[in-house]
Amino acid sequence: MWENKMNYHKYYSVDVVNGPGTRCTLFVSGCIHQCKGCYNKRTWKVNSGKPYDKALEDKIIQDLQDTKIKRQGLSLSGGDPLLPDNLSVILRLLQRVKNECPNKNVWVWTGYRLQDLTDEQKMLLSYIDVLIDGQFIESEADKTLVWRGSQNQIIHYLKKLE
Ligand code: SF4
């Protein structure tokens, strides 16, 4: 049975802003980091936004498989995709992307630092090509940075991109 355990705020089926190339981007609900200056405060509550369901997941997979508008991959942001409450749904989505959309890369933005991830969070890493980690720290904010907002955040290329 398909169980929904996650909410989301926005899904962009064609996005050229969040990650390289043309992509699909999902902004999930739920974040505990409460960064000062957060660009997306309304996503903090896990029950904010709308329920993520099988219809949306099927749509994401179909969009990634679309040959008319070719997407490089999937971007996951929020909110925090690695919030413990979101892990089971995100893991299932990433497993589907790997199995049904080979050659698509996955970029994930999280407020957790790579070195602090729990074993449960680490289970997702094998499905992620690029992880941008760390909270947004206003005093280290830098508008010239690409794919990240503050100097402390690190772009981890976990796998070599095609
Ligand atoms: S981790 Fe991201 S979404 Fe969460 S509070 Fe910080 S900036 Fe906002």
From TrEMBL:
* Cofactor list: [4Fe-4S] cluster
Family matches, as InterPro entries: Aldolase_TIM (IPR013785), NrdG (IPR012837), Organic_radical-activating (IPR034457), Radical_activat_CS (IPR001989), rSAM (IPR007197), rSAM_sf (IPR058240)
Q: State its Enzyme Commission number(s).
A: 1.97.1.-
- Identify the keywords attached in UniProt to this record, alphabetized: 4Fe-4S, Iron, Iron-sulfur, Metal-binding, Oxidoreductase, S-adenosyl-L-methionine
Reaction catalysed by this enzyme: glycyl-[protein] + reduced [flavodoxin] + S-adenosyl-L-methionine = glycin-2-yl radical-[protein] + semiquinone [flavodoxin] + 5'-deoxyadenosine + L-methionine + H(+)
Note the Pfam families from the entry. Answer: Fer4_12 (PF13353)
The family line of this record is: Belongs to the organic radical-activating enzymes family.
Protein's job: Activation of anaerobic ribonucleoside-triphosphate reductase under anaerobic conditions by generation of an organic free radical, using S-adenosylmethionine and reduced flavodoxin as cosubstrates to produce 5'-deoxy-adenosine.
Write down the NCBIfam families for this protein, in alphabetical order: NrdG, PRK11121.1
Instruction: List the protein's name.
Output: Anaerobic ribonucleoside-triphosphate reductase-activating protein
What is the species listed in this Swiss-Prot or TrEMBL entry?
A: Wohlfahrtiimonas larvae
